[in-house]
Each structure stands twice: as structure tokens, then as C-alpha cells.
Design brief:
CATH architecture: Alpha-Beta Barrel
Strand order of the largest sheet: 1-2-3-4-5-6-8-9
Mean pLDDT: 91
Distance between the termini: 28 Å
CATH class: Alpha Beta
Order of helices and strands: HHHHEHHEHHEHHEHHEHEEHEHEHH
Low-confidence stretches: 1-41
Strand content: 5-15%
Radius of gyration: 21 Å
Structural class: alpha/beta
Bound molecules: ligand G3I
CATH superfamily: Glycosidases
CATH topology: TIM Barrel
């Protein structure tokens, strides 16, 4: 679909005043847009730019958002991979200890298959989004069987249809002061630290084709805390691989913050090289850039957010072990950040590559440019 930027859409995107728009002819608007982000909405879809380099580009989405046709159209046009934001979490899958509800996951898988997208699962083991019955039902005596049967049942159902699974999600927390850096959370307390090995082995047995991922957050900055976490991550990965545990990749959640400058620095780059050196793949699994601490002006904010996307993706995609870039949503109309990191001035947040009207923002151009700059895999 080739659609020239109109003056109205450009202004809507940049929040510039009408007066500025009146000074620009259509070509001037397009030139100005190119200046702002380097691309306009008539650009090649992100999935095509990714494909040319042997990469996947996709998004998290939920069924109730995909019934918004304008949103679904952009997802279909831009993405060749999808991950359900909620439907494959325990909270959605497990209405009771003895029952499963696959309706949301099945619907989203069907949507992905219908539009020739790959599909990834999130998340088999997480300490959050657990069903209400969990705390009163799970015990040290039944936890291992509960986890094993959950993974076997869920992964077997979608065997052969999954590009990858987030088997483990957010299992590290150095501030819990364990020698292995693991988060003290229900799965660790009930099933012991070997829950991680058990989960990977169960998932691999149920679907030998799926890429199995350990997904983590807050790894992306060169800070003391992040470096601590990266070292614990490497320590755990080395131990698992030494025991021939089928861990195939790590997930960098990549929930970035526009007001944090030292993203993707030398320590982070060293970490990526070490992970790659272990023979593991890397996925950017939940990319977005929170702008809640930035000035309100859309032009200023969008450019700052785009600069973070550029800085981060140009660094990460230089590492050939990186095989996928997944944004945690595609449009500012639907982002978890609206509720999680609202702006104190009440203005809408703008963390993603498309705005609430499904028009590309400067972040879209930055992602597109980084995909075009990336070395081929
Ligand atoms: O749909 C219900 C609604 O009916 C109800 O009125 C409302 C208030 O209770 O809750 C709504 O469900 C919420 C759901 O998001 C849909 O908005 C859940 O309470 C809320 O817990 C859920 O939050 C999700 C969160 O994971 C927990 O599952 C976020 O959307 C989702 O973006 C977030 O994603 C996580 C990744 O899985 C892991 N990495 C961090 C990332 C962001 O927190």
C-alpha cells in the first residue's frame, strides 16, 4: 500500500502546530518527515527489511486488540512473527488445577497462520501472571509434577508450530543475594533451583523443533546492576550447557527508557559476544522505549525515542547471533506502558513504531534504518 504522507497526518504525528504545516507543501511534508525519521509510510514493511537480512520482525499482540481492523492491518503488513501478550501465560491457560483454556492461544495461532506469520510462546515459567488458585494449591510435594505436566501439555499441543518458546522468564534477581543469582520466587521455593533444567528438558521433549529461550529483563544498560545480572546469566547458562540442557537462545526483553543514556554500551556488547561464543542465539523479545520522563512535545519525544531505537538496534543487530526483533506491541494505541509507566502530565505515551492512528512514527524509521544497516545472517 503506497500512501503519501498528507500534511494532516504528518502534523498529527509530530504534534507540530497547524501554522508549520501550512508552510509545507505535500512534498515539503514528505521531505520534513524524511528529515525527522528518514522514511515515510510508503516504505518497505519491516518484516521485508528483516527478511532480507535473515532476521524476523514481529510483535506481541492479544486477540481483543487484533479485532481492531486498522491495527490488525498494520500487524499483518509489518510483521512475520507474533507472540501472544497474555494467552500462553498460566493466568490465561489454567482456570483450575485440572483444566486448560487454550481458546486465546488457539485464536492467536490461527490469526498468525492465516497471515503466514511465525508464532512464539511466552512464557512457560514465570513468577507473575499465575492463576489465583496457584498459591493455595502448589506445594513442595506437587510443584515439580505441576510444572512438568503444564509444560508437556501446553508445548505438545503446539508442537511443530512454534518458532520458539520463552521457557524461563525473569528468573534472575541478584538483589536476592543467592550465589546463583536466581530470583527467590514460588517455582524456586517449591521445586528447587533445578526447576530451570527441568523446564527446558520438558519443553524439548514435547517439541524438539522449537527454539528454547531463557528470557530476561534489565540487561541492556552499562550499569553495575545490569552487569551483575549479565554475569549471573552467563554463569547459569554455562552450567546448563555443561549439563547438556537444551537451552538454545536468550531473550533480551529490551524494555528501554528514553531518559537512560548508557544503553547498549561496551559491557553489554561484550555480553552479547560471550553469549554468541557459547553457541546460543539471541532474540530481542519485548522491545519498546518508555518516554514517560521526556518533555511533552511530540517532535522532541519522538526523535529521542527514535534515537534510542537506533542506538540500541544498530548495536544489537551488528551481532549475527541475533535472529529476531520483536516489539512489545506495534502501535501506541495498545501498549502496556500506558498503564505501567504513565506520564505525570497525563499525555499519551509514544513508545512504539506506529501512533494511535496507525501512522508510522520516527521510531518506525529508526527500526527500518537499523534493519537496512544490519549485516546479513
Ligand atoms: O483484561 C483484564 C480486564 O478485563 C480487567 O478489567 C483488568 C483489570 O484487572 O485486567 C485486564 O487484564 C490485564 C491484562 O494485562 C490486559 O490488560 C491484567 O490484569 C494485567 O496483569 C496484564 O498485564 C500484562 C502483564 O505482562 C502480566 O501478564 C501486560 O499486558 C503485558 O504487557 C505484560 O508483559 C510482560 C511480559 O509478559 C514479561 N516481561 C514484562 C512485560 C511487561 O510487564
Amino acid at each position: 500500500m503506497t500512501e503519501l504522507f498528507t500534511r494532516r497526518k504528518f502534523l498529527a504525528n509530530t504534534g507540530a502546530s497547524a501554522g508549520a504545516g501550512l508552510l509545507l507543501g505535500a512534498s515539503g511534508v514528505k521531505a520534513a518527515m524524511m528529515a525527522v525519521g528518514g522514511r515515510d509510510s510508503s516504505g518497505t514493511p519491516l518484516k521485508s527489511l528483516a527478511e532480507r537480512k535473515g532476521l524476523l520482525y514481529g510483535t506481541a499482540a492479544t486477540e481483543h486488540k487484533l479485532t481492531d481492523q486498522a491495527y490488525a492491518d498494520v500487524v499483518i503488513r509489518e510483521c512475520d512473527l507474533m507472540v501472544p501478550e497474555l494467552a500462553l501465560k498460566w493466568e490465561a491457560l489454567r482456570p483450575s488445577p485440572s483444566t486448560y483454556d487454550f481458546s486465546g492461544a488457539d485464536w492467536t495461532l490461527h490469526f498468525a497462520q492465516q497471515h503466514k506469520m511465525q508464532f512464539r510462546g511466552h512464557a512457560l515459567v514465570w513468577h507473575l501472571a499465575l492463576p489465583k488458585w496457584f498459591n493455595s494449591y502448589a506445594t513442595p510435594q506437587n510443584a515439580k509434577e505441576l510444572l512438568q505436566s503444564h509444560i508437556t501439555t501446553v508445548v505438545s499441543r503446539y508442537a511443530g508450530k512454534m518458532e520458539s518458546w520463552d521457557v524461563i522468564n525473569e528468573a534472575l534477581l541478584p538483589s536476592d543475594k543467592r550465589p546463583d543469582g536466581l530470583r527467590i520466587q514460588p517455582w524456586l521455593q517449591l521445586a528447587g533451583p533445578d526447576y530451570i533444567e527441568m523446564a527446558f528438558r520438558a519443553a524439548n521433549a514435547a517439541d524438539p523443533k522449537a527454539l528454547l529461550v531463557w528470557n530476561e529483563n534489565w540487561l541492556e544498560e552499562d550499569t553495575v546492576g545490569a552487569e551483575h545480572k549479565r554475569q549471573y546469566f552467563l554463569q547459569n547458562l554455562k552450567r546448563l550447557l555443561s549439563r547438556s540442557v537444551p537451552v538454545h537462545a536468550i531473550g533480551l526483553q529490551s524494555h528501554l527508557k528514553a531518559d537512560h543514556p548508557n544503553i547498549a554500551g561496551p559491557q553489554f556488547q561484550q555480553f552479547l559476544s560471550q553469549v554468541s561464543g557459547m553457541g546460543l542465539k539471541i532474540l530481542v523479545t519485548e522491545l519498546d522505549v518508555a518516554d514517560d520522563k521526556l518533555p511533552n512535545d511530540f517532535t522532541t519525544r519522538d526523535q529521542a525515542v527514535a534515537n534510542v531505537y537506533s542506538q540500541y538496534l544498530n548495536t544489537v543487530l551488528a551481532q549475527k547471533a541475533v535472529v529476531a526483533v520483536i516489539t512489545w506491541g506495534l502501535s501506541n494505541k495498545y501498549t502496556w506502558i500506558t498503564n505501567q509507566n504513565p506520564r505525570s502530565d497525563g499525555a499519551p505515551v509514544r513508545p512504539l513504531p506506529f501512533d494511535e492512528n496507525m501512522e508510522p512514527t520516527a521510531a518506525y524509521s529508526a527500526i527500518a534504518q537499523a534493519l537496512e544497516n544490519a549485516p546479513s545472517r
